[in-house]
Amino acid sequence: MTATAGPNAGNRLDDAPLSRFHKKLALYSSGGPFLDGYVLSIIGVAMVQITPQLKLSDSAQGLIGASALIGIFLGAFVGGWLTDKFGRQLLYTIDLIAIIGCSIAQFWATDPVWLFVLRLLIGMAVGADYPIATSLLAEFTPRRYRGPLLGGLVVMWFVGAATAYIVGEVLLSSLSDDAWRWMLASATLPATIIVLLRHGTPESPRWLANKGRTEEAEAVLKKVYGPDVTIADLPDEAEERENVDLKAIMRSGYGGRMLYISVFWTCSIIPLFAIYAFGSKILDALHLEGGLANIGEAMITVMFLIGCAIALLCVNRMGRRPLVIHSFVWSGLALLLLGLFPDASSGVVLTLFALYAVIIGGTQILQWVYPNELFPTEVRGSAVGLASSTSRIGAAVGTYLVPMALTSWGVGGTMLAAAAINVVGAVVSVLWAPETRGMALHECAALAPRSAKPVSRPAGV
């Protein structure tokens, strides 16, 4: 960066009002989470037809259900590295074009291996979008709105999931045995719309400045924030930390942050993804069958949405640290009760599932907030991608094991295992979760945040 930033550099950007540009960017960035929720949920509905037609075993069901998660593991890491190397804007649409092509190809899948490969590739493209879109949004958004807008991306995950259930049920009731093919190909339509909307999105000025492309960075700043904003208004992040790259991230002070983000993210999504991939089987095991099971799935999805909306209202008022701890503790209690009383009445079962869905919203929105706040610009995409990848290892394994766990342990044991995962998330959050509320982005990323509450944590958190 050629300009020297003063002590209040970045305040004009971090304290800027929320503009129409920020709102549009948040909406377009939410396309990735929407597609993630859609493709991961539509498979649960489609499996009703896929399982008998392709003669899938429990193991094959688990592999196909987890295939997109495995793809996300691969795509998030690669996408994060690419977005730090080549920029956010270029890859912002390429990944969605890949989703379109693979979604169409699923229509002609004739065997489990072909279907697994295609969903693996779709997962890779979805995973790549996580660090690309969230880094771009984080680097443009004023501090007051950063938490709600980043967290709001998770709301779109559940909107995508709810849409998938609606589309799936409509296609099941109106088409023949090939309805599952139309379900899996249906992601093509929203992906195409999102590609068109994202066209023309500018590159992140923080990334451009970090790469020495100061004239381009200043042009973007003037276009977005006004003619009187210059490159000097960007904070010099090098003053806030030691130099760090992806190869050194685990050895540097950021290794502790990566450890916490990976563990907390993994614990927050394993039970949730298992419920979405095999929601019908779980509800059937809890004696909710047929129409009641469909109503239960729809209600739980609505509760997830409500929970995320409530968490968005709390993320700045409560702070990040209290929100993540309370979310893990109380949602884990709901899972514990489901595990202890699997034969409870339908009303009790649905109530406990609804409580879990509402309360877990805190951990869900922070999956997008924490990783983007705790790492500097030159490795933000890589760090988000790496954390997303590591979290998907556990999520993929958990999803793969759900059908076998239901067979071997029963629904009670499966729910107790999910509760135990929440306990792990709560413990590591009590020990290591930082507080970043009210900080500028470069202050959050600094190795010793100025206003963070001192807590016992691994180095660099």
UniProtKB/TrEMBL annotation:
Its main location: membrane. It is found in: Cell membrane. Pfam families: Sugar_tr (PF00083). The lineage of its organism: Bacteria, Bacillati, Actinomycetota, Actinomycetes, Kitasatosporales. It is a multi-pass membrane protein. GO terms for molecular function: transmembrane transporter activity. It comes from Streptomyces spongiae. Residues 25-437 form the Major facilitator superfamily (MFS) profile domain. This is MFS transporter. The chain crosses the membrane at residues 25-50, 62-83, 90-108, 114-137, 149-167, 179-197, 258-278, 298-316, 323-341, 347-370, 382-403, 409-433. One of its GO terms (cellular component) is plasma membrane. PROSITE patterns: MFS (PS50850), SUGAR_TRANSPORT_2 (PS00217). Keywords: Membrane, Transmembrane, Transmembrane helix, Transport.
